Amino acid sequence: IIFPLSWLEFKSVIRPWGFRLFLSLIFIIYICYVAVWQQQYFSAAPTLPVTLEVTGVMLPLSFYFLLFLIINTTELLFRNNTSGFWQISDALPVPSWVTVLSKILAMLGVALLMTICLMLFGMLVQATKGYYHFEPGVYFNELFVRWIPKYLLYILLTAFVAGLTANRYATHWITILFLFCSVIMHETDAIEQNRL
User: Residue 39 and residue 183: Cα distance in Å, rounded?
Assistant: First the structure.
């Protein structure tokens, strides 16, 4: 029962135009960062877009990914309350942990989909710049092994805060404030980043 519910919740997140608009904006930012700015910043000579350089854009984009995941996880967890469906959903014979777990799995699926799209964007940039030596192992290590656990941690943090507060707005504020504080502390080297 968990996986059909997860699939339904997954489709409810990716179906609206907002998700497509977000992916389009990420694609434009990605193209501008990798294809235009990054090459000109380091040297005036043209360079080939090697896979490690293309996946290096994930650090600046991760803030937007995490913000998107936090907002959508919160909205997904509180959708029954905002739509007035909570009285009916509470009367169903399905335990509440099943619905929460299905929503967490759905958001993990959204994170995987966004990461796959980012990998395809990177390969598209490499192909348009004439570099056809794609390195799937580097993509897998840099995008999936390194970033998916962080996405999962923020999704679980959002679910935890939502369970503690039982308030949509408080969950938004607390998790977004935590995201801002962690970004600021990483940028100021208050917390060391252990890179794999």
Answer: 25
Question: CA 171, CA 146: separation in Å to the nearest integer?
Answer: 26
Q: What is the pTM of this model?
A: 0.84
The Cα 158–Cα 117 span in angstroms is: 23
Q: Residue 116: left (phi > 0), alpha (psi -120 to 50), or beta? A: alpha
Q: Is 25 exposed, middle or buried (0-12, 13-18, 19+ CB in 10 A)?
A: exposed
Question: Rounded distance, CA 188 to CA 45, Å?
Answer: 32
For residue 127, the number of C-alpha atoms closer than 13 Å in the C-beta half-sphere is 6
Written as tens digits, the pLDDT of the chain (196 aa) is 789 889 988 998 889 898 889 888 888 887 777 666 555 555 566 666 677 777 777 777 888 889 999 999 999 999 877 766 666 666 677 788 888 899 999 999 999 999 998 888 888 888 887 878 888 888 888 889 988 999 999 999 999 999 999 899 999 999 999 999 988 887 777 766 555 4
Check residue 93 and report its DSSP letter: S
